[in-house]
Write a structure and sequence with these properties.
Blueprint: H1 10-17, H2 21-29, H3 35-45, H4 56-71, H5 88-99, H6 104-114, H7 119-126, H8 139-156, H9 166-169, H10 172-183, H11 191-194, H12 203-212, H13 219-229, H14 238-245, H15 249-271, H16 276-279, E1 289-291, H17 295-304, H18 310-320, E2 325-328, H19 337-346, E3 349-352, H20 356-371, E4 378-380, H21 391-408, E5 419-421, H22 429-440, E6 444-445, H23 446-456, H24 464-473, E7 478-481, E8 486-489, H25 492-495, H26 504-515, E9 519-520, H27 521-529, H28 536-544, E10 551-554, E11 558-561, H29 583-588, H30 594-604, H31 609-622, E12 626-627, E13 633-634
Antiparallel strand pairs: 1-3, 2-3, 4-5, 6-8, 7-8, 9-11, 10-11, 12-13
């Protein structure tokens, strides 16, 4: 049939090309009731700008609609403006429009009578004899179906004799697809794009045609969508897209956000065509983790001659695998800020719902290991990050991590599917000091350590102040020996005999705490001499001058901790509350009478009168103290420093 003899009405144009309600009302209010009148108006006026209440979008839509109809062969012939035959496409369009105007019960009853929702099936049914007697139900429903059939047969007219029998009209796949389109009120002119000539479903060719139609969306919004949906990674920046479309960056951003909200609501309806599971098995994800890269859609593009990209593939996979997989934001797996949001668009990450918690935990552990400072290379198997109880789950998780690492941390994956981490930091000063002491292999003075450091690490000079600070701030790694600025490794205390950090007081205190009571001085000296070169007199003096309340000197040449003795018994020969007389104290009284020094011993150093007299007499006799002929103290010629002598040696022997 020559379509030039066909003049579709507004209702038929709505069904054929999805004419919007706005365009339909503009044409109707301006007296344009068919394609011929719309076409004639455009030729006469040079466009549609003069139509009442028309806008830019509606004008664009009407121009596109007329062009599409003319390309399809529609339009009135000047020689033969009328024809007794009706184009089957227009008849199907009329059927689509008026079928959905029936009541729900009437629609269900008619579907049961004709078998398939096509105009051909309906015409074949209503062409039978006594069709009214076959209608069942209440009188109102029978009347509704009878009126529908009468209008359909009038519309078909002479074409009813040329309608193909129902059994030869459609194969099952085509019939199901057409039925799905009618239920979704999708215009009939999309049907050739949904099923090819062999009856094979071509869903993505239909979607490309559907989203490319200027009637479906506004021009700018459609352009933004197609740039994203049919583009490859990386997607264009908002600034570049705004410049290309002559829009503001903010407007482009709003459109992208709007399509991100609308696609998840619209795609489930468009993808739920009968038979998609058998046709597109590759879109049903089997792996626990899938990073969208456009590979699945490339095969479909080759088959259906389409041009969909990773962005659209991600939306399709989220819809079709919604029950088993969930999208994970890249911000949650180590890609921060704007970079993560762009990867959500370009390379969506889909993870099985039942493995999501374990997957995120493994990824966090992996990130901590990768980001941790390393002074040497590290190679680690993936199973070290997995804590699953069963072998099958652990194997699936390792496969998931391999898929994830191939995209997120590709540079760290080696040929054996292990994480290979290179050194990411230089050894710090603590490591330098550790290496120097290990090379010296014995406790050493700070001067010796500085020299060894500068020889070993000439590019990182050191000094005594730095070494002392490192040792002081890290007592868990280093120790010092007394106040001699001698340092060593804390680990040596466990492996090297005769090496012990700290002071003599610390060694004695630990021995007394372990004993739990008084210990003989000889036993104490045996313990001290294991780690220090000293003598009995120096050790006793050291303990005596540390202040009251720490060590107690008992009868029998014993020493105890004050906290372990409830009732300490002091030796009569010792007054542990008395402080020693030092050379600097004597120098302070040079030129003063001896009585002033004695008063100082009694008042300030806690000496008794007898003890002060004995101490001064002992120093005068040994030359540590001297007086002139007037009894005034003068500098002594003795060079011996009595600071480290025990107070009990200052008693004057009995005469």
């Amino acid at each position: 049939m020559d379509r030039n003899q066909i003049d579709p009405t507004l209702d038929e144009l709505r069904s054929l090309y999805g004419m919007s309600v706005r365009a339909y009302n503009v044409c109707k209010n301006n007296g344009l009731r068919s394609l011929a009148t719309i076409q004639a108006y455009r030729i006469e006026k040079g466009g549609f700008k003069t139509l009442k209440s028309i806008g830019v979008t509606t004008e664009y839509e009407l121009n596109e609609l007329v062009d599409q109809a003319l390309e399809a062969g529609y339009g009135l012939s000047a020689e033969d403006p009328k024809s007794p035959l009706v184009d089957p496409g227009l008849l199907e369009a009329w059927f689509d429009t008026h079928y959905f105007e029936l009541s729900r019960l009437a629609q269900k009853a008619l579907l049961g009578l004709i078998g398939e929702l096509t105009a051909a099936h309906a015409v074949a049914f209503y062409a039978q004899q006594d069709v009214i007697s076959k209608l069942e139900g209440p009188p109102t429903r029978i009347k509704e179906l009878a009126v529908f059939g009468e209008q359909l047969m009038q519309r078909a007219g002479a074409s009813a004799a040329h309608i193909q029998p129902p059994g030869q009209l459609l194969i099952p796949e085509v019939s199901a697809a057409h039925h799905w389109m009618r239920l979704l009120r999708i215009p009939a002119h999309y049907a050739p794009h949904l099923v090819d000539g062999s009856g094979r479903l071509t869903l993505f060719r239909f979607l490309e045609r559907f989203y490319s139609s200027p009637i479906q969306t506004k021009a700018n919004k459609q352009a933004v969508f197609l740039v994203y949906a049919q583009g490859s990674s990386p997607l264009p920046l908002h600034d570049d897209l705004a410049l290309k479309l002559d829009l503001t960056r903010e407007r482009v951003r709003q459109m992208v956000e709007a399509q991100e909200r609308e696609l998840p609501r619209e795609l489930p309806r468009l993808l739920n065509v009968p038979g998609w599971e058998e046709r597109y098995t590759q879109l049903i994800l089997q792996s626990p983790v899938h990073v969208v890269d456009g590979s699945l859609m490339r095969g479909i593009n080759d088959e259906e001659n389409t041009n969909w990209g990773p962005y659209f593939e991600g939306h399709v996979l989220r819809v079709l695998n919604n029950q088993t997989h969930v999208q994970v934001d890249w911000n949650k797996v180590g890609v921060p800020g704007r970079a993560g949001r762009r990867m959500d668009l370009e390379k969506p990450l889909l993870v099985e719902r039942n493995m999501l918690e374990e997957f995120l935990r493994c990824v966090r552990a992996m990130e901590e290991r990768i980001d941790a400072p390393r002074t040497e290379e590290l190679v680690q198997d993936l199973d070290s990050f997995v804590r699953s109880a069963t072998a099958s789950v652990a194997e699936n998780m390792q496969a998931a991590l391999r898929s994830f690492i191939s995209v997120r941390y590709r540079e760290f994956m080696n040929a054996d599917a292990q994480i290979h981490l290179a050194r990411n930091s230089q050894p710090d000063k603590l490591e330098h000091l550790q290496a120097v002491l290990e090379a010296l292999n014995e406790p050493s003075t700070v001067e010796h350590i500085v020299v060894a450091w500068n020889e070993r690490f000439p590019g990182i000079p050191s000094n005594a102040h730095l070494i002392r600070g490192l040792v002081h701030n890290h007592p868990d790694r280093f120790f010092s020996i007394g106040r001699s600025s001698t340092y060593g490794l804390r680990s040596w205390e466990q492996v090297k005999p005769g090496v012990r950090g700290g002071t003599i007081r610390r060694i004695v205190r630990e021995l007394l705490e372990k004993a739990g009571g008084p210990v003989a001085v000889e036993v104490i000296m045996q313990e001290v001499l294991r780690y220090r070169r000293t003598n009995r007199q120096s050790v006793v003096t050291n303990l005596a001058i540390c202040g009251p309340g720490q060590f107690i000197f008992l009868d029998g040449d014993r020493i105890a901790l004050a906290v372990t003795m409830k009732k300490p018994v002091l030796s009569p020969a010792m007054n542990t509350e008395r402080l020693p007389l030092r050379r600097k104290d004597i120098k302070r009284f040079t030129g003063q009478p001896l009585a002033a020094l004695k008063a100082f011993l009694i008042d300030k150093l806690n000496y008794t009168d007898t003890e002060a007299t004995q101490a001064l007499a002992s120093r005068l006799r040994k030359g540590r103290l001297a007086v002139d002929q007037n009894g005034l103290i003068i500098p002594s010629s003795s060079t011996e420093d009595p600071e480290d002598q025990s107070p009990d040696q200052f008693t004057v022997p009995e005469e």
